[in-house]
Amino acid sequence: MAGDLLVLQAGGKMKTCFWIVVGLILWHYVGYPLVLGVLARLKRAKASPLPDELPQVSIIIAAHNEERIIARRIENCLGLDYPKDRLEIIVGSDGSTDRTAEIAKKYEPQGVRVLAFPNNRGRSQVHNDCVREATGEIVCFTDADTLYAPDCIRKLVRHYADPKVGCVGGELRSRSFQQGAIGGGQGLYWRWEYALRRWQSKLGVLTKASGANMSMRKELYRPVPDDVDIDQAAGPMVVLQGYRVVHEPEAIAYEEFPTSLARELATRRRLTIRALTALWRYRELLNPFKHPWLAFHTCSYRLLRYLMPFLLLGALTINGLLLREGWLYDVAFALQGVFYLLGFIGFFLEKRGKRFWIFSWPFAFLWFQVGILTGTLEFLLGKRIKAYTPN
pTM of the predicted model, to two decimals? Predict the structure, then answer.
Protein backbone atom coordinates (compact mmCIF):
# COMPACT_ATOMS: atom_id res chain seq x y z
CA MET A 1 0.00 0.00 0.00
CA ALA A 2 2.80 2.38 0.93
CA GLY A 3 4.49 1.73 -2.41
CA ASP A 4 1.26 2.41 -4.30
CA LEU A 5 0.82 5.65 -2.35
CA LEU A 6 4.32 6.80 -3.25
CA VAL A 7 3.67 6.01 -6.90
CA LEU A 8 0.45 8.03 -6.81
CA GLN A 9 2.20 10.95 -5.13
CA ALA A 10 5.04 10.83 -7.66
CA GLY A 11 2.52 10.68 -10.50
CA GLY A 12 0.67 13.65 -9.07
CA LYS A 13 3.86 15.70 -8.84
CA MET A 14 4.81 14.82 -12.41
CA LYS A 15 1.38 15.92 -13.61
CA THR A 16 1.76 19.20 -11.76
CA CYS A 17 5.21 19.73 -13.28
CA PHE A 18 3.89 18.89 -16.73
CA TRP A 19 1.10 21.45 -16.57
CA ILE A 20 3.40 24.10 -15.14
CA VAL A 21 5.83 23.57 -18.04
CA VAL A 22 3.02 23.53 -20.62
CA GLY A 23 1.51 26.61 -19.00
CA LEU A 24 4.80 28.54 -19.31
CA ILE A 25 5.13 27.56 -22.99
CA LEU A 26 1.57 28.60 -23.75
CA TRP A 27 1.95 31.80 -21.72
CA HIS A 28 5.01 32.89 -23.72
CA TYR A 29 3.57 32.16 -27.16
CA VAL A 30 -0.16 32.70 -26.64
CA GLY A 31 -1.19 34.12 -23.28
CA TYR A 32 1.30 36.95 -22.97
CA PRO A 33 0.81 38.24 -26.55
CA LEU A 34 -2.97 38.15 -26.07
CA VAL A 35 -2.84 40.02 -22.76
CA LEU A 36 -0.35 42.50 -24.19
CA GLY A 37 -2.48 43.12 -27.28
CA VAL A 38 -5.66 43.63 -25.25
CA LEU A 39 -3.97 46.03 -22.81
CA ALA A 40 -2.42 47.99 -25.67
CA ARG A 41 -5.79 48.24 -27.42
CA LEU A 42 -7.46 49.48 -24.24
CA LYS A 43 -4.81 52.13 -23.64
CA ARG A 44 -5.61 55.40 -25.34
CA ALA A 45 -2.86 56.55 -27.66
CA LYS A 46 -1.28 59.88 -26.74
CA ALA A 47 -0.77 62.37 -29.52
CA SER A 48 2.96 62.69 -30.17
CA PRO A 49 4.20 66.29 -29.95
CA LEU A 50 5.65 67.71 -33.12
CA PRO A 51 9.32 68.73 -32.95
CA ASP A 52 10.04 72.45 -33.17
CA GLU A 53 13.10 71.64 -35.24
CA LEU A 54 14.97 68.55 -36.29
CA PRO A 55 17.69 67.56 -33.81
CA GLN A 56 21.38 67.15 -34.55
CA VAL A 57 21.95 63.48 -35.40
CA SER A 58 25.11 61.37 -35.47
CA ILE A 59 24.89 58.07 -37.39
CA ILE A 60 27.44 55.56 -36.13
CA ILE A 61 28.48 52.69 -38.41
CA ALA A 62 30.61 50.06 -36.69
CA ALA A 63 32.54 48.17 -39.38
CA HIS A 64 35.08 45.37 -39.47
CA ASN A 65 36.50 44.32 -42.87
CA GLU A 66 33.59 45.71 -44.87
CA GLU A 67 35.46 46.99 -47.95
CA ARG A 68 32.90 45.34 -50.25
CA ILE A 69 29.91 47.27 -48.93
CA ILE A 70 31.11 50.27 -46.92
CA ALA A 71 30.88 52.71 -49.85
CA ARG A 72 27.28 51.69 -50.54
CA ARG A 73 26.43 52.19 -46.87
CA ILE A 74 27.97 55.63 -46.66
CA GLU A 75 26.25 56.77 -49.87
CA ASN A 76 22.96 55.48 -48.49
CA CYS A 77 23.42 57.67 -45.39
CA LEU A 78 24.50 60.69 -47.46
CA GLY A 79 21.34 60.34 -49.55
CA LEU A 80 18.93 60.44 -46.60
CA ASP A 81 16.06 62.91 -46.51
CA TYR A 82 17.56 64.84 -43.61
CA PRO A 83 19.23 68.28 -43.51
CA LYS A 84 22.94 67.87 -44.21
CA ASP A 85 23.86 70.51 -41.63
CA ARG A 86 22.14 68.44 -38.94
CA LEU A 87 23.56 65.07 -39.90
CA GLU A 88 26.92 63.61 -38.92
CA ILE A 89 28.15 60.25 -40.25
CA ILE A 90 30.83 58.42 -38.26
CA VAL A 91 32.46 55.22 -39.48
CA GLY A 92 34.20 53.30 -36.73
CA SER A 93 36.61 50.84 -38.35
CA ASP A 94 37.19 48.12 -35.77
CA GLY A 95 40.69 46.90 -36.53
CA SER A 96 39.90 46.32 -40.20
CA THR A 97 42.71 44.62 -42.10
CA ASP A 98 41.25 45.37 -45.53
CA ARG A 99 40.46 48.71 -47.26
CA THR A 100 37.41 49.61 -45.14
CA ALA A 101 38.97 52.70 -43.54
CA GLU A 102 40.71 53.75 -46.78
CA ILE A 103 37.46 53.65 -48.75
CA ALA A 104 35.52 55.45 -46.00
CA LYS A 105 38.10 58.26 -45.88
CA LYS A 106 37.34 59.10 -49.52
CA TYR A 107 34.04 60.49 -48.22
CA GLU A 108 35.63 62.82 -45.67
CA PRO A 109 35.24 65.84 -48.03
CA GLN A 110 31.48 65.20 -47.78
CA GLY A 111 31.62 65.42 -44.00
CA VAL A 112 32.04 61.75 -43.12
CA ARG A 113 34.25 61.17 -40.09
CA VAL A 114 36.38 58.03 -39.99
CA LEU A 115 37.73 56.67 -36.71
CA ALA A 116 40.15 53.85 -37.45
CA PHE A 117 40.93 51.73 -34.41
CA PRO A 118 44.02 49.50 -34.55
CA ASN A 119 42.59 46.36 -32.95
CA ASN A 120 39.41 44.33 -33.39
CA ARG A 121 38.01 45.05 -29.93
CA GLY A 122 34.34 44.46 -30.70
CA ARG A 123 31.33 46.60 -31.59
CA SER A 124 30.65 47.72 -28.03
CA GLN A 125 34.04 49.38 -27.63
CA VAL A 126 33.70 50.99 -31.06
CA HIS A 127 30.29 52.35 -30.09
CA ASN A 128 31.66 53.69 -26.80
CA ASP A 129 34.47 55.55 -28.55
CA CYS A 130 32.30 56.82 -31.41
CA VAL A 131 29.58 58.14 -29.11
CA ARG A 132 32.24 59.97 -27.14
CA GLU A 133 33.31 61.72 -30.38
CA ALA A 134 29.79 62.30 -31.72
CA THR A 135 28.46 65.86 -31.85
CA GLY A 136 24.77 65.04 -32.32
CA GLU A 137 22.26 65.14 -29.48
CA ILE A 138 20.76 61.94 -30.96
CA VAL A 139 23.00 59.01 -31.89
CA CYS A 140 21.79 56.40 -34.37
CA PHE A 141 23.40 52.95 -34.43
CA THR A 142 23.50 50.88 -37.58
CA ASP A 143 25.54 48.25 -39.43
CA ALA A 144 27.58 48.33 -42.62
CA ASP A 145 25.24 45.87 -44.34
CA THR A 146 22.08 47.82 -43.47
CA LEU A 147 20.34 50.32 -45.77
CA TYR A 148 18.02 53.04 -44.49
CA ALA A 149 14.82 54.01 -46.26
CA PRO A 150 15.15 57.72 -47.23
CA ASP A 151 12.89 58.96 -44.39
CA CYS A 152 14.07 56.49 -41.75
CA ILE A 153 15.99 58.98 -39.59
CA ARG A 154 13.18 61.54 -39.73
CA LYS A 155 10.74 58.87 -38.52
CA LEU A 156 13.06 57.83 -35.69
CA VAL A 157 13.90 61.24 -34.30
CA ARG A 158 10.43 62.81 -34.40
CA HIS A 159 9.63 61.06 -31.11
CA TYR A 160 12.32 63.01 -29.25
CA ALA A 161 10.00 66.01 -29.14
CA ASP A 162 8.66 64.13 -26.09
CA PRO A 163 11.27 64.77 -23.36
CA LYS A 164 10.54 61.42 -21.70
CA VAL A 165 11.51 59.39 -24.77
CA GLY A 166 15.10 58.19 -24.48
CA CYS A 167 15.41 55.55 -27.21
CA VAL A 168 13.61 54.88 -30.50
CA GLY A 169 13.91 51.73 -32.58
CA GLY A 170 12.71 51.08 -36.12
CA GLU A 171 11.98 47.95 -38.15
CA LEU A 172 14.14 45.78 -40.35
CA ARG A 173 12.89 44.34 -43.64
CA SER A 174 14.66 41.70 -45.70
CA ARG A 175 14.43 39.72 -48.90
CA SER A 176 15.92 36.86 -46.90
CA PHE A 177 12.47 36.19 -45.45
CA GLN A 178 11.53 34.59 -48.78
CA GLN A 179 14.53 32.25 -48.87
CA GLY A 180 13.95 28.68 -47.70
CA ALA A 181 12.67 27.37 -44.41
CA ILE A 182 15.06 29.47 -42.30
CA GLY A 183 14.18 32.69 -44.13
CA GLY A 184 10.46 31.95 -43.88
CA GLY A 185 10.83 31.19 -40.19
CA GLN A 186 12.71 34.45 -39.67
CA GLY A 187 9.95 36.38 -41.43
CA LEU A 188 7.33 34.79 -39.20
CA TYR A 189 9.43 35.47 -36.10
CA TRP A 190 9.97 39.14 -36.95
CA ARG A 191 6.26 39.76 -37.61
CA TRP A 192 5.50 38.33 -34.17
CA GLU A 193 8.42 40.21 -32.59
CA TYR A 194 7.45 43.62 -33.99
CA ALA A 195 3.82 43.16 -32.97
CA LEU A 196 5.00 42.61 -29.38
CA ARG A 197 7.29 45.64 -29.56
CA ARG A 198 4.49 47.89 -30.83
CA TRP A 199 2.26 46.86 -27.95
CA GLN A 200 5.04 47.12 -25.36
CA SER A 201 5.94 50.53 -26.71
CA LYS A 202 2.37 51.72 -26.30
CA LEU A 203 2.31 50.43 -22.72
CA GLY A 204 5.68 51.99 -21.89
CA VAL A 205 7.43 48.70 -21.03
CA LEU A 206 9.60 48.16 -24.13
CA THR A 207 13.28 47.49 -23.36
CA LYS A 208 14.51 46.27 -26.76
CA ALA A 209 15.44 47.74 -30.15
CA SER A 210 17.08 46.37 -33.29
CA GLY A 211 20.78 47.21 -33.20
CA ALA A 212 20.97 47.93 -36.94
CA ASN A 213 18.16 50.51 -36.82
CA MET A 214 17.92 52.35 -33.52
CA SER A 215 18.66 55.68 -31.86
CA MET A 216 18.97 57.20 -28.39
CA ARG A 217 19.75 60.45 -26.66
CA LYS A 218 23.50 60.87 -26.36
CA GLU A 219 23.16 62.27 -22.83
CA LEU A 220 21.64 58.96 -21.67
CA TYR A 221 24.35 56.78 -23.18
CA ARG A 222 26.56 54.93 -20.74
CA PRO A 223 29.61 52.86 -21.78
CA VAL A 224 28.46 49.42 -22.88
CA PRO A 225 30.35 46.39 -21.51
CA ASP A 226 32.42 44.65 -24.17
CA ASP A 227 30.40 41.42 -23.91
CA VAL A 228 27.04 43.12 -24.56
CA ASP A 229 25.67 44.66 -27.76
CA ILE A 230 23.93 48.02 -28.05
CA ASP A 231 20.53 46.54 -28.96
CA GLN A 232 20.52 44.61 -25.66
CA ALA A 233 21.95 47.47 -23.58
CA ALA A 234 20.25 50.65 -24.80
CA GLY A 235 16.75 49.74 -23.61
CA PRO A 236 17.69 48.84 -20.02
CA MET A 237 20.12 51.77 -19.94
CA VAL A 238 17.34 54.21 -20.85
CA VAL A 239 14.50 52.67 -18.83
CA LEU A 240 16.53 52.47 -15.63
CA GLN A 241 17.16 56.23 -15.96
CA GLY A 242 13.43 56.87 -16.04
CA TYR A 243 12.93 57.30 -19.81
CA ARG A 244 10.85 55.37 -22.34
CA VAL A 245 11.78 53.22 -25.32
CA VAL A 246 9.54 53.71 -28.37
CA HIS A 247 9.07 51.44 -31.38
CA GLU A 248 8.47 53.28 -34.67
CA PRO A 249 7.11 50.89 -37.33
CA GLU A 250 7.43 53.49 -40.11
CA ALA A 251 11.20 53.86 -39.64
CA ILE A 252 12.33 51.19 -42.10
CA ALA A 253 15.78 49.79 -42.84
CA TYR A 254 16.76 46.83 -44.99
CA GLU A 255 19.20 44.05 -44.20
CA GLU A 256 20.01 40.55 -45.37
CA PHE A 257 19.84 37.82 -42.75
CA PRO A 258 21.75 34.52 -42.80
CA THR A 259 19.54 31.74 -44.14
CA SER A 260 21.94 28.79 -44.35
CA LEU A 261 21.61 26.23 -41.58
CA ALA A 262 25.16 26.68 -40.29
CA ARG A 263 25.09 30.49 -40.32
CA GLU A 264 21.67 30.70 -38.69
CA LEU A 265 22.78 28.31 -35.96
CA ALA A 266 25.97 30.30 -35.33
CA THR A 267 24.05 33.60 -35.30
CA ARG A 268 21.35 32.33 -32.95
CA ARG A 269 24.00 30.92 -30.61
CA ARG A 270 25.95 34.20 -30.56
CA LEU A 271 22.86 36.37 -30.06
CA THR A 272 21.68 34.14 -27.22
CA ILE A 273 24.99 34.38 -25.36
CA ARG A 274 25.04 38.17 -25.67
CA ALA A 275 21.35 38.52 -24.78
CA LEU A 276 21.73 36.44 -21.62
CA THR A 277 24.87 38.37 -20.72
CA ALA A 278 22.87 41.59 -21.03
CA LEU A 279 20.04 40.17 -18.91
CA TRP A 280 22.56 39.31 -16.23
CA ARG A 281 24.27 42.71 -16.35
CA TYR A 282 20.94 44.55 -16.26
CA ARG A 283 19.26 42.06 -13.92
CA GLU A 284 17.67 44.92 -12.01
CA LEU A 285 14.92 44.67 -14.66
CA LEU A 286 14.05 41.26 -13.19
CA ASN A 287 13.62 42.57 -9.63
CA PRO A 288 9.87 42.41 -8.86
CA PHE A 289 10.31 44.50 -5.70
CA LYS A 290 11.91 47.47 -7.46
CA HIS A 291 10.27 47.20 -10.90
CA PRO A 292 7.27 44.82 -10.68
CA TRP A 293 5.72 45.77 -14.04
CA LEU A 294 9.04 45.67 -15.90
CA ALA A 295 10.00 42.39 -14.21
CA PHE A 296 6.72 40.82 -15.33
CA HIS A 297 7.28 41.82 -18.96
CA THR A 298 10.99 40.99 -18.96
CA CYS A 299 10.30 37.48 -17.65
CA SER A 300 7.37 36.88 -20.00
CA TYR A 301 9.04 38.31 -23.09
CA ARG A 302 12.77 37.73 -22.75
CA LEU A 303 13.65 35.24 -20.02
CA LEU A 304 11.16 32.62 -21.17
CA ARG A 305 12.53 32.89 -24.71
CA TYR A 306 15.88 31.52 -23.55
CA LEU A 307 14.33 28.94 -21.24
CA MET A 308 12.10 27.66 -24.05
CA PRO A 309 14.34 24.78 -25.28
CA PHE A 310 14.47 23.41 -21.73
CA LEU A 311 10.72 23.79 -21.32
CA LEU A 312 10.05 21.98 -24.60
CA LEU A 313 12.40 19.14 -23.68
CA GLY A 314 10.89 19.02 -20.21
CA ALA A 315 7.35 18.80 -21.57
CA LEU A 316 8.30 15.91 -23.87
CA THR A 317 10.22 14.01 -21.19
CA ILE A 318 7.61 14.37 -18.44
CA ASN A 319 4.82 13.61 -20.90
CA GLY A 320 6.61 10.39 -21.86
CA LEU A 321 6.62 9.34 -18.21
CA LEU A 322 2.91 10.07 -17.97
CA LEU A 323 1.80 7.82 -20.82
CA ARG A 324 -1.23 5.71 -19.92
CA GLU A 325 -2.09 8.16 -17.14
CA GLY A 326 -5.09 9.29 -19.13
CA TRP A 327 -6.11 9.97 -22.71
CA LEU A 328 -5.15 13.65 -22.41
CA TYR A 329 -1.50 12.80 -21.76
CA ASP A 330 -1.48 10.25 -24.58
CA VAL A 331 -2.89 12.80 -27.03
CA ALA A 332 -0.44 15.48 -25.85
CA PHE A 333 2.50 13.14 -26.37
CA ALA A 334 1.25 12.14 -29.82
CA LEU A 335 0.86 15.78 -30.85
CA GLN A 336 4.40 16.55 -29.72
CA GLY A 337 5.68 13.53 -31.60
CA VAL A 338 3.93 14.65 -34.79
CA PHE A 339 5.37 18.16 -34.44
CA TYR A 340 8.93 16.90 -34.03
CA LEU A 341 8.45 14.42 -36.89
CA LEU A 342 7.32 17.26 -39.17
CA GLY A 343 10.41 19.19 -38.12
CA PHE A 344 12.75 16.30 -38.93
CA ILE A 345 11.14 15.87 -42.35
CA GLY A 346 11.50 19.62 -42.90
CA PHE A 347 15.22 19.34 -42.11
CA PHE A 348 15.80 16.71 -44.77
CA LEU A 349 13.69 18.61 -47.31
CA GLU A 350 15.66 21.80 -46.59
CA LYS A 351 18.91 19.93 -47.21
CA ARG A 352 17.53 19.03 -50.64
CA GLY A 353 16.40 22.56 -51.40
CA LYS A 354 12.69 21.83 -51.10
CA ARG A 355 10.13 23.64 -48.98
CA PHE A 356 6.58 22.84 -47.86
CA TRP A 357 5.25 25.06 -45.10
CA ILE A 358 3.75 22.21 -43.08
CA PHE A 359 7.30 20.83 -42.68
CA SER A 360 9.36 24.02 -42.99
CA TRP A 361 7.76 26.01 -40.18
CA PRO A 362 8.18 23.27 -37.52
CA PHE A 363 11.75 22.72 -38.73
CA ALA A 364 12.63 26.43 -38.62
CA PHE A 365 11.16 26.75 -35.12
CA LEU A 366 13.12 23.74 -33.86
CA TRP A 367 16.33 24.90 -35.55
CA PHE A 368 16.03 28.25 -33.78
CA GLN A 369 15.56 26.37 -30.51
CA VAL A 370 18.73 24.35 -31.15
CA GLY A 371 20.67 27.62 -31.55
CA ILE A 372 19.13 29.06 -28.38
CA LEU A 373 19.83 25.85 -26.46
CA THR A 374 23.47 25.82 -27.59
CA GLY A 375 23.95 29.48 -26.71
CA THR A 376 22.26 29.13 -23.32
CA LEU A 377 24.40 26.14 -22.34
CA GLU A 378 27.56 27.96 -23.42
CA PHE A 379 26.51 31.02 -21.41
CA LEU A 380 25.92 28.89 -18.32
CA LEU A 381 29.37 27.36 -18.81
CA GLY A 382 30.93 30.83 -18.76
CA LYS A 383 31.23 31.59 -22.48
CA ARG A 384 31.15 35.31 -23.35
CA ILE A 385 31.52 36.96 -26.77
CA LYS A 386 33.39 40.23 -27.16
CA ALA A 387 34.96 40.86 -30.56
CA TYR A 388 33.61 38.74 -33.39
CA THR A 389 33.50 38.69 -37.15
CA PRO A 390 29.90 38.99 -38.47
CA ASN A 391 28.59 35.94 -40.33
Answer: 0.89
